[in-house]
Amino acid sequence: MTEHRSPDAKFRTSLLEENDGPATNLTDNRTMGEIITARFSRRCFLKGSLAVSAIAATVSPLALVSADQARAAEGSAFAFDELEAGIDDKHHVAPGYDADVLLRWGDPLFADSPEFDPTKQSAQAQAKQFGYNNDYVGYIAIDGSAEHGLLVVNHEYTNPHLMFPGIVKIVEKDGKKSAEIAPLSKEQVDVEMAAHGGTIVEIRKDGGKWQVVREGKLNRRITSNTEMALSGPVAGHDRVKTNADPSGTKVLGTVNNCAGGVTPWGTYVMAEENIHGYFSGELPEGHKEAANYKRLGIPEGAYEWAAHYDRFDLAKEPNEANRFGWIVEVDVNDPTSTPRKRTAMGRFKHEGAESIVAKDGRVVFYLGDDERFDYVYKFVTTGKFNPNDLAANKDLLDDGTLHVAKFAEDGSVEWLPIVFGQGPLTAENGFASQADVLIETRRAADLLGATKMDRPEDIQPNAVNGKVYVMLTNNSKRKADQVDAANPRAENAFGHIVEIAEDGGDFTAAKGKWEVLLKCGDPAVANVGATFSTATTANGWFGMPDNCAVDSAGRLWVATDGQGPKATGRTDGLWAVDTEGSARATSKLFFRVPIGAEMCGPLFAPDDQTAFVAVQHPGDGGEDWQPFGRPSYYEDLSTRWPDFKPDMPVRPAVVAITKQGGGKIAV
To answer: Is the N or C terminus of the chain more exposed, i.e. has fewer CB atoms within 10 Å?
Structure first.
């Protein structure tokens, strides 16, 4: 009989992504909530749920009449009939559009890949198949084509209770059902490790529909066992040396790749986020990495990899965790190339790495640290992008300056350089080199006095209007004494979006201005304090902004993570958000995911005629998510999306959305 263990009636790998554990930032740096409160209290900001964003003209609730709604609607940059919000086991897209499943977990990627068989999984098969829990989606054109290119996709994490048959046992106590999950075998852990990482696959549009090219010469799977190189200031440092790698330059694999990016020179970057869940065991008593790891929540032990691989056991390999939490760059044009962990870009729980070429040719990357009370960063390369010699850009990410944001009440933001020897980043505070500063990026930012944010996730620079959009998903840990009527966000459940304008329109600038574009949540509930425009319908508002995209027209699209029956009464989805003119802060629902899923991606093809979205962890969630009052697991799922076959489990997948009859999305 298989011995089962109880994870407190919840599945631990699902909880890992929620980031709702004990706060790890114990500094007294000011939170973004406190700054917003102070700023807008001084300006007598309007009370109530219908006060619009401070960046727009303020409107009295008494003036919310149909004429205002009509003006906002007429000024919208988006033309489509809005989808109805709701919850069920399927995906839905706005009328007039098709949403076709392009790639599912387990789909073959190579000519010799085996077909997916959920009852006969193996690491060998998974390494040639599409991985699990697709998150970031990027597109790299082949020969400049918007209809033929490489799709690059991150595989963030795995949910064994949804992947493997026979490991969940349901017990009932006091009339309530809960789940117990058996320890995974080594073979199952190996499948998990092969399902992590990323996919590079050739795709082509044929007859208006996208197809996978299994014979693509550049197709590749990257996994938790792919050999990688540490590069930049940390490479070779004593703190990243292990028994298996005494050189401190070679790492096996990448984990928990959340959002990411595509560089101007056409490489694929993967952002390592919640690395703490992969490590177990205890450091030797008095070990010098204890405080460093505590600041990152290491070890959390959601995964069982340490039971089979010593490198994930801190007692046996105390430096291994320092080799994760980086930005990984992959040369997609050489499937035999070694991915490189670019340590100059800092070590923390990276949400993404979206970039833009500045006026002087340097490249700027915006980076969120996805944890409550952590920070917003940007990295500015020292070298300049050379569009005429792509090979000359290959090591741009090894030399540059990482900065952290400090937001002020007057609406200004300062980017503080994270450089050894400057300010408090000295030997007196335990830093002996830039390598130490980067390994402990969070502590360095603490000492610099950066602003504690409400879970920074995706950050997108907009080349059309010169602004930068910061997704702040939520912060359930904010205390009531940190808010007032102008910012009614105790236990900020719904998050908000900050818009930054860098000084002089220069993305490398040391200073800029900031405003709140949106406070999210239901505007019909007064104490939520949401600030959507009055033209936003009951279907158009959302909470928990997470990933986002800016299309070629400069329009903002926002994907959400964390909505559900109790939180919002709707599933996650993709919303079109106006940022300009009379329609500013108006939002419309375009696509929604099935029950239990998160909306990831999104990505627009270069011609804006396709929106690629990633439906992550469909069918997941604790009892609160399930409408049937019971857990969802392999044998008893809340949905069998996207196949809806009794012999197929639920499968994360990438969906391609196109307009019926062709043409640009939302035009």
So the answer is: N
Buried/exposed 493-516: b ≥16 CB within 10 Å, e otherwise: bbbbbbbbbbeeebbbbeebbbbb
The string over 356-390, giving b where at least 16 C-beta atoms fall within 10 Å of a residue's C-beta and e elsewhere, is: bbbeeebbbbbbbbbbbbbbbbbbbbebebeeeee
The C-alpha atoms of residue 268 and residue 572 are separated, in whole angstroms, by 26
Q: Is the pLDDT of residue 80 over 50?
A: yes
- Band of the pLDDT at 9, cuts 50, 70, 90? very low
CA distance 501 to 410: 14
Q: Where are the alpha helices (DSSP H) in 234-329?
A: 290-295
- Per this entry, what is the length of the chain? 667
Mean pLDDT of 552-562: 97
* The two three-digit tokens of residue 392, written as one number: 């000359």
Contact 513, 531 (CB under 8 A): no
Asked if residues 539 and 85 have their Cβ atoms less than 8 Å apart, the reply is yes
> Which of 590, 579, 598, 577 has its CA nearest to residue 652?
598
> First CA to last CA across the chain, in angstroms?
59
**Where are the alpha helices (H) located in 80-211, listed in sequence order?**
123-126, 160-163, 186-195
In the numeric block, the tokens 């990257």 are attached to 222
Q: Nearest-CA neighbor of 507 among 359, 383, 402, 344?
A: 359
> Do 591 and 93 form a contact (C-beta atoms < 8 A)?
yes
CA-based R_g, the chain, Å: 23
Under 8 Å between Cβ of 267 and 395: no
DSSP 18: H
Question: What are the backbone angles phi and psi of residue 346, rounded to the nearest 5°?
Answer: 90, 160
SS3 67: helix
Measure Cα distances from 524 to 179, 394, 520 in Å. 36, 51, 12
Per the CB < 8 A criterion, the answer to whether 303 and 192 are in contact is yes
Closest CA to 592 of 146, 91, 5: 91
**pLDDT-based confidence at 29, cuts 50/70/90?**
confident
**Is the separation of the CB atoms in 170 and 177 below 8 Å?**
yes
CA distances from 20 to 156, 308, 475, 568 (A): 18, 27, 9, 18
Q: What are the φ and ψ backbone dihedral angles of 181, each rounded to 5 degrees?
A: -120, 135
| Residue 243 token pair | 């028994």
pLDDT at residue 31, rounded to an integer? 66
- What CA–CA distance (Å, rounded) separates 230 from 317? 17
Closest by CA to 602, choosing from 153, 158, 203, is 153
- The DSSP bridge partners found for residue 216 are none
Can you read off the two tokens belonging to residue 550? Answer: 């800016």
Tens digit of each residue's pLDDT (9 = 90 or more) over 516-552: 999 999 999 988 889 999 999 999 999 999 999 999 9
d(CA 97, CA 665): 9
| Per-residue confidence band for 602, with pLDDT thresholds at 50, 70 and 90 | very high
> Is the pTM value of this prediction over 0.85?
yes
pLDDT score for 178: 77
Asked whether the predicted pLDDT for residue 207 surpasses 90, the reply is yes
